[in-house]
Amino acid sequence: MKKSLKELKSLSLIARGDILKMTTVANSGHPAGSMSSIDMFLSVLNRANIFPEDPFNPDRDRIVVSHGHTSPGFYTALGRMGFIDIEEVISGFRYAGSIFEGHVTRGIPGVEWSTGNLGQGLSAGVGMALAAKKRKKDYRVYVFSSDGESSKGQIAEARRTAIKEGLNNLIVLLDYNDIQISGRARDILSVNIVGEYKAAGWNLIEIDGHDFEQINKALEVAENEPLRPTVIVCKTNIGRGVSFMENTPTYHGKALTKEQLSKALEELGLENDVEKYIERRKNMALTRDKLNYPNIELKVETGQPIVYEKGTKVANRNAFGNAIADLAKLNKDNFPVVAIDCDLKPSVNLGKFEKVNPEGYIQIGIEEHNAATIGGALSVSGVLTFFADFGVFGLDEVFNQQRLNDINHTNLKTVVTHCGMDVGEDGKTHHEVNYIGIVRSLYYTKLIVPCDANQTDKAIRYAAKVPGNFVIAMGRSNLPILLDEKGDVYYGNDYNFEYGKLDIFRKGKDLTVFTYGSFAHLAVEAADKLKEENIQITVIGVPTPLDFDLIQVKEFVDNTIVLTLEDHNVENGLSNELSKAMIRNSLKPSYFEPMGLRDYTPSGTINDLLKIYGYDVESLVNKMKGLIENK
C-alpha cells in the first residue's frame, strides 16, 4: 500500500537512524551519502510499480543504484518498504555471513544490479529501458546516480545512447550534495552536470532532494514525459538530519563511534537500541545462502547448422554473422534478438543480421564501455543479446565492465573477432593476445575458440541456447575447412558441439600438438606433410581452452612429446591450462614445449608474421622434426 507524503517524512527520520545504526554495528560503510539519498530512495520505492511480495515479477519497474556505496540507505529503504527484514540488515550489514554486502548486490529483493564501480549504473539502466522498448513492455527504469561519479566518461556515453534510442521510460535521480571522499566535488573535478544533461538533450528538472513534495512532483512529470529520458537533479545535504555530519566529507565513508551514534540518535529523537544489533551480530553464522539471479529465461530455437563444404575458405567471423542472422529469423517473433555494434558492422559481419532483423541491430558507436554494460543489462531482461567487437575492445578495454557482467551473472554472448596476430597489418595495438588470460579471471564466463567456420556455427548456436555468459573468440582471416583423416568435413552434420570436449584431428605416436582457433589448420597441414615422411603426429583441437577433460586423450600425452601451438600470449594461454591439467591428472609427457607469442607483434600480413615467428607450415614441420630427432 502506497504511503502518504506525511508518512514518508516520518519514515525518513527512522531510516536515518537505521543507516547510522547499521554502519556503527559494522564499524564501516558510507552513512552520510546514504542520508542525502534516502528521501529519493523512499519516494521512488513508494511510487514505482514494484511488488515486495513478488519482487522479481517480470513486469516490475527496475531500479538501479549506480552509487552503490549508498547501500545502507537503499537497504534501509527496502527494509522499511517491506522487501527485506530491516533487523537482519542492521545486524548483518557488511558481515561475511549476511547477503547485505558493502555495495548493493543483485539478487537481494529490490536490487536489480550489483554496483560499486562508479559510472556504470546509467548504462545498466539504459540496457533495461531498451529491453522494455524491444519487448514492448511499459515498465520504467529508475537510476540513482551521484555528482561524484558524473565526471566519468561512461555516463556521457550512456546519456547519448538514451537520447538516440528515445528512452522516455528512463528516469535518473542525481544526488547533488557536492561532496565526495576527498572533499568538495567542485574542487576535485568540476563538472557542469546540469549543462551536460541539457546539451545531451535530456528533459531536466532541478529540485530540493529532501522535499518530498518536490521529489514526487518531479517524478510525476518524468513518468509522463512522452519523448525523452529525464534527469532530476536533486540538491541535497550530505549527512542530512545530524548537525555535526551535515556538509562535511568526514562521514562520507566513516561510521560513527558509539558515542557519536548516541548523540546523533538523540538529535533525531530516536531510541538508541544499537546494543541489541551488536549482540545479534555476534551470534550470526559465517555461512549464508546463495543468492538467486532472476534472469528471464529464453527458450532458444537453434535451427539447423550451416555446413561449409571442404575446399572452401571461410572466416569464422563470417560464419558467426550467418549464424546469428539465422538465430534472429528463428526467434525474433518469440523474444527480441539483439546484436550490439561499436561502429564495426562490416568487420564483425553484422550486415546480414541487420538486414533480416533491423529492429535488433543496435549501433552504439565508439562507446565500448557503455556497450558492454548495456549488453549485460539487456541479457538479463528477456533479450537474446550478442555483443560483437574486436578482441582488444570487447575484452581488454572493457575488462571492468565484463567483470561487472560476470558478478551480475548476466546472459551475454560476447563475440570478439580479430583476435591474435591474425589482425596482421593493424599492428600490436589491435592484436588481441590475452583473451584466455582475461576470461580466466572471470568466475562465471565460459570461453569458446572455434577452429573453423563449421565449428563456429555450431558453437554460436550452442552459446545462444545455454544460459550464462560466453566469450566466443576468433580471428580475421579466411580459414580452410578442417577435414578428418579420411578427407571428410570434420565438423559436419554429425558433429554436435559439447563444451569441454577435445577434437582429435590426427592421430600419431611421435608427437602431440594441442592447438585451437586460427592455428588449428596449420598444425593439421604440418601433420599431413610429416605423414608423407612416415612421421605420425597427433593434432588435438581445444576449442574450450579453460575447461577440458585431458583424460580423454591420455594416450597422446603420457610419455609423449607435447607441443602447444597458439596465436596468443604464451604466458597466459593454453600452455598454462594444459600444464595444470597434466599435473592434475598425473600425466607426464617426455618433453613439453609451449609455442606462443612472447612479445607484441608488428604490422604485417599474417603470412609474413607466421614466417617471422616460425608458425608457417614449413617452419612447423622443421620444428616438429627437430623435437622428434632430439628426444
Automatic annotation (TrEMBL):
Family assignment from sequence similarity: Belongs to the transketolase family.
Sequence ranges assigned to domain Transketolase-like pyrimidine-binding in this UniProt record: 314-481
GO process terms (BP): glyceraldehyde-3-phosphate metabolic process
Source species: Petrotoga olearia DSM 13574
This protein's name: Transketolase
Known cofactor(s): Mn(2+); Mg(2+); thiamine diphosphate
GO CC terms of this entry: cytoplasm
Gene3D superfamilies: 3.40.50.920, 3.40.50.970
Alphabetical UniProt keywords: Magnesium, Metal-binding, Thiamine pyrophosphate, Transferase
A family per Pfam: Transketolase_C
